[in-house]
Every structure is written in structure tokens, then in C-alpha cells.
């Protein structure tokens, strides 16, 4: 009997965006226990340097490993870009990011190999999506689009605001006269803008939500490693948040699509 | 002889905004040595909770006190709102914030006592400006305006972008049919938007830049305490930055209005 099957899954993000991944994991693996770390006291990650993001990611991973987890999900594109390789070298459990699953999904559904990725400055500058796509489609036609305001607009509850529409129109200008047929939402905040993006991009363009792809990847990795729980009761969720719990509970609901309970503050660790 | 006169002045901020205060202090007290701490790895402060801001402020103050300073400037409105009183209780040197000097200046120049303050969510929610103004003008007509996007727009170098104009027009709508004659720029990022704000507000409204007021206050506090340096040579500046030095040097130039040299990274302290 493999006692590890009954350990939890750790998920971390700079704050809110990772909840879109959390939701997919909850839906796909309802019997698993999940620990979510949202580093809201230090958000955002997307405009900070590789060294700082790596330091934060290692600290977050250690915090979650201390909860005795069987697998770790880096549910933030910027943290995946700058820390996934190093985390996999350091720690001895399966660690899954959001970039590779998103790239694989895009490569699968694109019919002409012309693929764009929307992301933070950190994610796009890292070129990690580009490299992942090149491995899958050697002659990929790649466009990386930095969208620095979108995270703030989503976190300010401005999804339907004219300023968000103006920003999206500017960021999606590259679509004019382009042959792009697939866009990866390369930031875990962007699924909340999926409808607005689809409307500007038009029906012919397919959007890839890395959160789905990441949850599928987690499931198959757990299967391969015989780590899926055999329990048939619903799993539990626990949230560890470094800034205000009330704000997390309030804003987080829009990301998770469910009320959030069982939140604990942590702060003196860092 | 008072050896303390030759110690430095400490200034801290979440990152870039405090440089507008730094510049005023450099111009007014050119012979003083200044240590500037920019906590860029954890910015912004404006949308985080009082407890987190207090913790960060105490850590920043301890870091600067370790440089042996004779006075400390909290060059961030949100940090002033949530930590100034506590810092003054804990530490045994003069500590100056940006709110009281800004409120005093506004009370001085307003002819009708109708005063608005633009700030982050943290600063406005704290009501610290309102309270400071009430002490000076008991029947003040106060309007606090939360402007959550402006910090991001300034940090993304979008001062002249149509989105910034759209955001400012929305935030300044309260001026329609109002009798406000004075607006306090209650965030150290906002002096970079001074021209744009003045254009929308019109010539009849006076803007208060807390950075000037804060530097004047610092000078008078140093005078009262016989702490002004007697040296007649130019002082030195040193910057301690928790995220990437290059980005700070590049973006910081727009805030300081001068090239920034002598930057050191710190990061393992927190």
C-alpha cells in the first residue's frame, strides 16, 4: 500500500490567478486534498526580476513541502518561467508548471503553427513559451505579447470597464493582417478576460487556457507515479495567504468561481 | 560638538515614488548624506493591508537605522498612513511622513477649505489625510479619491498614454459641480502626473505636491534638533533596492530627474 497516495497537492501563485488552476484541479481530482499558497503580500510577480521570483518560489515550495505534499503545482506563469527547472532540481516530488501544458495544448489545436502568447513582462521576456513551442513545432511562427496592465485591471475588478477594452484592443493589434490561429492565455489572471479577448480576436481564433491543460497534466503525472488518491470522499482545501484574508476571500471568489473557506494567514515566515 | 550632525538621513518607499521626495531633500539640503531604501521586490504598498504595511515599514526602518541615521523620512503615503505613529513610538530619532506636511500645505493655500486628496486605496481608506485636515480646518469639506490604476500607469511609463487620460478623467469626475479649490497629490507617484492632472482640473485648482512640503518639514525638524550638517561639501547618496538594480536605475531616473548611481541590492534580509 502506498501511503503517499493520501498526501495532499500543493499549489502556489503570487496571489489570485492560481485559483483558476486550483478550480480545474478541484473539478478534475475532487477527492484530493489541496493546499494553496497565495503570496498576496508580495504580489505581483510579473514585473519583478528572475532572481527575486526564484527566491520567492523556493520559499513558497518549502512552505508547502512542510505540509507534506505528494506533488507541487506552480500555478503562475512568471514563477514557472523563472523557477520550474530549479525547483525540479532541488525537490524530490513531481513539480508541474503551467507553461509546458499550455504550449502542448496550443501545438495540438493550432492548424497552421502560427501561435501567440499573452503574458506578463517576466513571462514573455523569459522566452520559455517560445522555447517550449519550438520543441513541439520546429518552424512555429511565434508572437509574444507583453500585457502589463491586465493583471492590475483584473485585480481591480475592472474586467468590464472601458479601460480594459482599450488596453485589450491595443495589446491585440498584432492580430491585424496576421495568420495567428491560436492564442495562449499565458497568465493565470487572463481566463477572467477570456470572453473579452475572444470578442476582439474573433471566432476563428482559438484560445488556450493553461489552467485546464495544467490540471490534465497533473492528473497524468499522478497516475504515472501511482499517486492518485484511492479515497472516494471529497477532498479538502486549505488556503495560506500572506496578506489580508478578507480581501483574498472577497476577490478570490471571482477567480475560483466558488466561495473560499478555510483561509489561514502566514507572514512571519518571510 | 554634536557628532550626530554628520550622520545621514534615511528615506524609504515601496520603490520609485519616494524618489520625488528624495529629489526635494537633495535640492533643499544638498550637503546631507542620504540613504534611500526602495522595496521594489514587494511593491506596490498601496493595495496591501495595514498589518503587512506596518511589518514592511518596521523592517525598512531597522535596515536604515543600521546605517546609523539621524532622521528618517517615510516617503510613501500608504506607509505613512499605516506606520508613522508606530515607528515614532518604537524608534528614538525624528521620523517624518508625507501626509502631515501635505495636509498643512493644503490648509495654508486653500481659500475656501474645500480640499480633495488623490491616493491609493490604502491611503484613502485610512482616513489619515481627512483627520490631519480636520485638525487644521475643523469644518473642512474633504473628498478622498481612490486612484488604484495610477501607480501602475506611471510605473509602466504610460504617463502620456490615452489610457492614463481616460483613468484621470474618471477619477477627477468629482470636480464637476464641486467647489474644491485644492487637490493634494497624496501618493509620491503622482507628481509625475501633475501636468496631466492640472490640465483636467483647470487653472483655478491648486495642486499640492507633498514631496516639497515633506522636504521643508524635514529641514525644520533637523534645525530644531540641531541636526543639520555643518559641512559645506556636497553630500552623497546611496540606494538600497530589493529587486533588480538595472530596472531601478532606468525607471528611477524619471522620478528623480537625475541619473541614479551607487545602487546596492539587498534581498536576503527579508
If you had to describe this structure to a student in words, what would you say it looks like?
The structure is a homodimer of 270-residue chains. Chain A has 270 residues and is an alpha/beta fold. Chain A folds into two domains: 3-97 and 212-269, 3-Layer(aba) Sandwich (Rossmann fold); 100-210, 3-Layer(aba) Sandwich (Rossmann fold), CATH 3.40.50.1860. Chain A is built from eleven helices and ten strands. Chain A has helices at 18-28, 50-65, 77-90, 99-109, 121-126, 128-136, 150-155, 162-171, 194-201, 210-224, 245-256; strands at residues 8-13, 34-38, 69-74, 95-96, 114-119, 141-146, 182-185, 206-209, 237-241, 263-265. A six-stranded parallel β-sheet of chain A has the order 4-3-1-2-9-10, with helices on both faces. In chain A, strand 9 (237-241), helix 11 and strand 10 (263-265) form a beta-alpha-beta unit. In chain A, helix 1 (18-28) crosses helix 10 (210-224), helix 2 (50-65) crosses helix 3 and helix 4 (99-109) crosses helix 10 (210-224). The longest helix of chain A is centred in the first third of the chain and has 16 residues, at 50-65. Chain A is globular, with a radius of gyration of 18 Å. The mean pLDDT of chain A is 96. The A-B interface holds A 40-42, 47-49, 51-52, 55, 148-149, 152-153, 155-156, 162-163, 166-167, 170, 242-244, 247, 267, 270 and B 40-42, 47-49, 51-52, 55, 148-149, 152-153, 155-156, 162-163, 166-167, 170, 242-244, 247, 267, 270.
Amino acid at each position: 500500500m502506498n501511503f503517499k497516495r493520501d498526501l495532499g497537492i500543493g499549489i502556489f501563485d503570487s496571489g489570485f490567478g492560481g485559483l483558476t488552476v486550483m478550480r480545474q484541479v478541484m473539478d478534475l481530482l475532487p477527492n484530493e486534498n489541496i493546499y494553496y499558497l497565495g503570496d498576496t503580500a508580495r504580489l505581483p510577480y510579473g514585473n519583478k526580476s528572475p532572481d527575486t521570483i526564484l527566491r520567492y518560489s523556493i520559499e513558497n515550495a518549502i512552505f508547502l513541502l512542510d505540509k507534506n505534499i505528494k506533488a507541487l503545482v506552480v500555478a503562475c506563469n512568471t514563477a514557472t518561467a523563472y523557477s520550474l527547472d530549479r525547483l525540479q532540481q532541488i525537490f524530490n516530488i513531481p513539480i508541474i508548471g503551467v507553461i509546458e501544458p499550455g504550449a502542448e495544448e496550443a501545438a495540438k489545436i493550432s492548424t497552421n503553427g502560427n501561435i501567440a502568447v499573452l503574458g506578463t513582462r517576466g513571462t514573455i521576456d523569459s522566452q520559455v513559451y517560445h522555447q517550449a513551442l519550438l520543441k513541439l513545432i520546429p518552424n512555429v511562427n511565434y508572437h509574444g505579447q507583453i500585457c502589463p496592465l491586465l493583471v492590475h485591471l483584473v485585480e481591480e475588478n475592472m474586467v468590464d470597464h472601458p479601460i480594459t477594452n482599450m488596453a485589450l484592443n491595443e495589446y491585440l493589434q498584432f492580430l491585424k493582417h496576421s495568420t495567428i490561429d491560436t492564442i495562449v492565455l499565458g497568465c493565470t489572471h487572463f481566463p477572467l478576460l477570456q470572453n473579452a479577448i475572444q470578442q476582439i480576436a474573433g471566432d476563428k481564433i482559438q484560445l488556450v487556457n493553461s489552467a485546464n491543460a495544467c490540471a490534465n497534466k497533473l492528473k497524468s503525472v499522478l497516475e504515472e507515479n501511482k499517486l492518485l488518491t484511492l479515497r472516494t470522499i471529497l477532498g479538502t482545501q486549505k488556503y495560506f495567504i500572506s496578506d489580508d484574508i478578507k480581501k483574498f476571500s472577497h476577490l478570490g471568489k471571482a477567480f475560483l468561481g466558488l466561495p473560499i473557506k478555510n483561509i489561514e494567514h502566514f507572514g512571519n515566515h518571510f
